[in-house]
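Hello everyone,

My group is preparing for a crystallization screen and wants a predicted model to guide construct design. The compound we'll soak is NAP. Before spending weeks at the bench, it would help to have a computed complex in hand. I've included the protein sequence and the ligand's SMILES below. Output in structure-token form would be ideal because that's what our pipeline reads.
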Amino acid sequence: MEAHHPFDLRGKVIVVTGASSGIGRQCAISCSRVGAKVILIARNEVRLGETLSLMDHSHHRILPMDLTEAAETEEKLAALKDLGGIHGVIHSAGISTTLPLRNISEDKLSNFFKTNVNASINLTRLLTRPGYAAKEGASVVFITSVMGVVGEAGKTLYSLTKGALVAGAKSLALELAPKKVRVNCVSPGVVVTPMSSSAVYSQDEASLEKIRSYHPLGLGEPEDVANACVFLLSDASRWITGTNLMVDGGYTAR
Ligand SMILES: NC(=O)c1ccc[n+]([C@@H]2O[C@H](COP(=O)([O-])OP(=O)(O)OC[C@H]3O[C@@H](n4cnc5c(N)ncnc54)[C@H](OP(=O)(O)O)[C@@H]3O)[C@@H](O)[C@H]2O)c1
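Reply:
Good plan to model first. Here are the tokens for the complex, ready for your pipeline.
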């Protein structure tokens, strides 16, 4: 019999949100390469299909939904109850902005929390219920950000939401440990994706160069984040919970 490799995800069912773009898309692809069966979630069905076409194996499933709609999310996730247990979740769906304090309205606060925080907690609650999480245990990974730990001018709104998840993951890790559910964060620096390409700092070469200079190893690629997520989903990380892994090319080492 072939020896079990601790980084292997064969036989595991992994839910990836934000799978229609950027980091989430690469996470879905990388999980498929190490053998996982992947459930791809985001709103845009066409782009989810594009991700699917880049994946290894054909046993994956697309589940389009708006994660800010709690009732719709619960209804659609019910389709996963027949899978025999979910072993992992990479929650990459999220939104970002650069906004000075004077422009942070109640509406914007509420909208950002709804997408980046409320949806994360709702998803975790639903997928760790009996009948959903695998009996042998599960691993939840939140894609947070260096902005949840350090600051930059104009990043208050985004930082608030990512810092909330970094803090919440620790209490979740303690609460869910008896169920053998691990909860960790991966905090990227700037990664080249549609999100970062549309950010204000990407609009002129001088601003982009400044951002690059903050990353001693240069800007990240989605694969750099996906590899860290695969590790946190795999049995190789079975004794790791409640942590926040900085995957940032040295951004926070300064
Ligand atoms: N790129 C970076 O530099 C960077 C750095 C640090 C942290 N991050 C974090 O990494 C994560 C992924 O970022 P990215 O760069 O890959 O961004 P992206 O390319 O813009 O992808 C964002 C994903 O989130 C999904 N999404 C957004 N709102 C949703 C909703 N209401 N319901 C369901 N899905 C939703 C989008 O899918 P649909 O539009 O199809 O719904 C898309 O798949 C985010 O949480 C971001 O904050 C990114």
